[in-house]
Prior knowledge:
Order of helices and strands: EEEEEEEEEEE
Distance between the termini: 40 Å
Radius of gyration: 13 Å
Helix content: under 10%
Largest sheet: 7 strands, mixed
Mean pLDDT: 93
Structural class: mainly beta
Number of helices: 0
Number of strands: 11
Amino acid sequence: QVRLEESGGGSVQAGGSLRLSCAASGFTESEYCVGWFRQAPGKEREGVASINNVGYARYAGPRKGRFTISKENAENIFLLQTNDLESADTAIYYCAHKSSQWDCVPDSWAIGSYNTWGQGTQVTVSA
């Protein structure tokens, strides 16, 4: 059974950076997709970035350029580097997993295809 645990959230001023981590355990398949999503108060969950087992990374809209998703090679730890943060980035950030490398995208229509979710980590950006 796959388990995900996020960490690295916190409070920063606008323009600051945070590195979010998603520690995954219980991986038994060689094929996977891990995505980062976020949900702000009163808003729907939205995608941020995703990456699959062959390193194919995708970003949702305007996040590309400020956010970078990666995997630590030796560990099942998935990172989301967030730079130049804005107040609009304030949200709970979640990582999610599914056992397929296909349709590995952070698009809203794909949210339901991710089977396992972490508890989330809070990111708060002050102006």
